[in-house]
Design brief:
47% helix, 2 domains, seven-stranded mixed sheet, 14% strand, alpha/beta, Rossmann fold, 317 residues, 9 strands, DNA polymerase, domain 1
Length: 317
C-alpha cells in the first residue's frame, strides 16, 4: 500500500470516529501519526514475512475489570469486578467479614478516584486497601472448587464484541496480555466459563492466589498489583514481555482508569503505543483527564465493537 493510500485510510478512520458522539480525541495529529505507523508497519511485516495476517506487528495489553468486562448491563445496573466476586462470596459465608470489606471500600474508593490527589499520594493507600481486602479473602477460606462456582454465578459480562476481537487476535497470532489489579485466578475461570477456553495467545497477569495442601486459598503471591503500580516495569516477567515486543513494533493498550494508561511504563517509545480508554461514568467530570491520558476515549459502558472496528479498519479482519 502506498504512503498516500495509508494516510487516506487513517484520515478516514479518524473522521469516522469523530462523528460518534461518545468518542473523544484530544490530539488528532498524534493519533494520526500512531495509526499511520501502525498501518505502515503492519503492511511491511506482512510483506517481509510473506504472511496474510498482522501477527508480526502488534501486541495487545489490556485491563480486565470494566475494560474487557462491562461496567453496566443493558438496564444500566453496575456489574461486578473480580474483587466483587469474592466480596459477594464473603457476604454469603460471613456477614461480619463482608461488613469489614465494605468499610474498606467506603474508606479507600474515594481516594482511588480523587481528582485532588496525585498518583504518588494515592499509591500507599491503594497498597493498604488491597492487602487488607486480600486478607479478608484469605480468612473466608475459599477452595479451588469454589472458584468455578463463583465464576459461574458472577455478575460479570464480557463487553459486546470482545469475543469476536479475541477470536480475531487468536486467528492472527496477536498476543493478548491481560494485566489486572484484580484476581488472576478468577479471570481465567471466567474465560473458561464465558468463552469456553483461555486462548493460547493470552496470558493473565494479576494478583495470584497461593493454595494450601487442601486446595484452600492461604495467601497471595508477590508482587501485589493495585491500580497505580500496574505497569510493565513492575512485573516479574518484564524481561519475557519486553522480549516478545522485539518483533512486534507496536502496542495497543486498553484500559478504563487513569492508572491503566500507565501500564506501558517500561516501554521506552511512547509513539509505539496506541492507548484506547473506556470512560464508563462521570463523563463530564473526567473527560479532559482521560483525553490527556488516552489517544482515543470511548464513553460506552458495555461495548467493545468501536475499539475492534478501529483496528479492523486498519489491519483487516
Amino acid at each position: 500500500m502506498s504512503d498516500s493510500a495509508v494516510l487516506e485510510k487513517v484520515k478516514k478512520t479518524i473522521s469516522d470516529l469523530q462523528e460518534r458522539r461518545f468518542i473523544f480525541i484530544r490530539d488528532v495529529a498524534t493519533l494520526e501519526a500512531k495509526l499511520e505507523r501502525l498501518c505502515d508497519e503492519t503492511t511491511s511485516a506482512v510483506q517481509v514475512r510473506n504472511r496474510p495476517h498482522c501477527s508480526c506487528a502488534i501486541d495487545v495489553v489490556s485491563d480486565f475489570d470494566f475494560t474487557i468486562s462491562k461496567y453496566a448491563n443493558s438496564t444500566g445496573e453496575r456489574l461486578w469486578t473480580t474483587h466483587d466476586v469474592f466480596d459477594q462470596g464473603i457476604r454469603v459465608i460471613k456477614m461480619e467479614l463482608y461488613e469489614e470489606v465494605q468499610a474498606l471500600r467506603a474508606k479507600y474508593l474515594p481516594i482511588e478516584f480523587s481528582t485532588e490527589m496525585s498518583i504518588e499520594e494515592k499509591i500507599p493507600h491503594m497498597e493498604t486497601w488491597w492487602r487488607l481486602a486480600h486478607a479478608c479473602i484469605v480468612r473466608a477460606g475459599f477452595s479451588r472448587a469454589d472458584l468455578k462456582t463463583l465464576a459461574s454465578v458472577a455478575r460479570i459480562e464480557l463487553r459486546n464484541g470482545f469475543t469476536e476481537f479475541l477470536n480475531w487476535a487468536e486467528k492472527n497470532g496477536v498476543p493478548v496480555t491481560i494485566f489486572s489489579a484484580g484476581i488472576a485466578n478468577i479471570i481465567r475461570e471466567l474465560f473458561n466459563h464465558r468463552v469456553g477456553r483461555v486462548p493460547l495467545n493470552m496470558r493473565v497477569i494479576g494478583n495470584e492466589f497461593s493454595f494450601d495442601e487442601f486446595g484452600v486459598v492461604c495467601g497471595f503471591f508477590e508482587p501485589l498489583i493495585h491500580t497505580y503500580n500496574k505497569n510493565i516495569s513492575a512485573i516479574k516477567c518484564k524481561d519475557d514481555f519486553m522480549g516478545s515486543l522485539k518483533d512486534r513494533r507496536n502496542v495497543v493498550l486498553f484500559g478504563d482508569t487513569l492508572g491503566d494508561a500507565r501500564m506501558d511504563l517500561g516501554i521506552d517509545e511512547s509513539e509505539r503505543i496506541l492507548k484506547i480508554g473506556f470512560l464508563n461514568h462521570t463523563v463530564d467530570g473526567m473527560k479532559e483527564s482521560y483525553m490527556r491520558a488516552y489517544d482515543v476515549v470511548i464513553s460506552d459502558p458495555s461495548d467493545f465493537n468501536t475499539a475492534s472496528e478501529l483496528l479492523f479498519s486498519l489491519l483487516g479482519r
